[in-house]
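Lecture 7 notes: from sequence to structure.
We start with the chain below.
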Amino acid sequence: MSPHAPRFRCALAAALLAGAAASAVPSGTAHAAPPVRDRIVVTADGSPAYTLAGDLSSGSIAVLDNVVTYEPDRIEGTGTLPGSAGGTASVSFDIADRDFSLKGRFTLKDPGAGVEITADIDGGVTVPGTAQVRWEGKGTVRRAGGSADRRVAFTIEDRRPDPGDHAVRFTHAGQQRNAILRLPDDYDGTPRPALFHFPGLLESPAVAEWFGRMADFAQTRGFIMVTPEHHGVGWQGVLGGTPGPDLDDPGFVRRLQDVLVDRFDADPRRLYASGMSNGGFFTSKTACENDRFAAFAPVAGQLNDPGACAPGRHVPIVLIHGDGDFVVPYATVRPALDFWKRNNGCGSRTVATELPDIAPDDNTTVVRHDHPDCPADGPVTLYEIKGGGHNWPGGTPFLGPFLGGTTYDIDANAVIWDFVSRHRL
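Predicted structure tokens for the same chain:
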């Protein structure tokens, strides 16, 4: 079981309640790497007052986020930094979300200054800026053999992201936009490929992750998993996306690409896009417009307006769709498939391969349709899920059997990653 699972189950429960109410390959491509070390600032009132500010010289402090609220839910780690009066100071944080509040302990020891600080945290943690957390409250300050309760504060600049869940929050086109991402277990700041997943209609990133387990799949495979949040019920500019404010979803995605490259060391040559249902439609539209993604994988939502699509390049793309899908009928696949074959210069030859029926009890089978005359930089592949409904292959059915069959003969996460990871810009 993933170490994130217990925390995620709590996050999912909150999401559903809210809904009821409403193989890493380093690249030589230049990109903006984050600063090497986290930065810590600690202050304490008193006479004399105490201040320590500096970059960690060893260790790290992990600031990890809740995938539902997009707010910190864990601050933990130890490190050392230069002391305020020479020598070496040490800090330790053990703070986690308990009963809907961040609780735990912070300690600092600065032997050169003869200062030791401890503080029990019970709420009050704020996010003053990007990759920053701050707390201010009562702590115990010991110096010169005595101790006193003082006003204490700390600020952490999480300049070196750690493996685990992170939230991205910024304002774009006048609207607050959010995304969640998971950095893999072996994340070390070297450039990593990143897979964006666009959720379907009414799906938050947390709900999409719960039913698809995409981040869990990425966690041990060395790539970054990113799930942006749409505004309202779905992605705009495609079927199902209810018109609303001028959101500029394509611009939001481009800005999020910048954040992934600049702050989280995503390899700009190995960014990929996938999506489900309305998110699949949006993935397909993005394949027409966004030349910063190297490959695409729409699931149960194919290109719905081929006449308006002009990529100006070959587009590596894998389509996944169930022939029993009554929400987005399988008949919508053919026009999209024909467009991508034509755009990529694939010719008409098709090779159909029946895949092993490894889960006969799911009442589905899978046929892979390859097009061997496609160019190397523009393969087009279709996975036809015979008996498959409007669900994520290999995942948990979104509404049980209501949306049709779910195949377990393939895992969409593995199929998608195997396809897109072969390509780079």
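Points to note: The chain is about 20% helix and 35% strand. Helices lie at 5-21, 205-212, 214-219, 249-264, 278-289, 333-344, 412-420.
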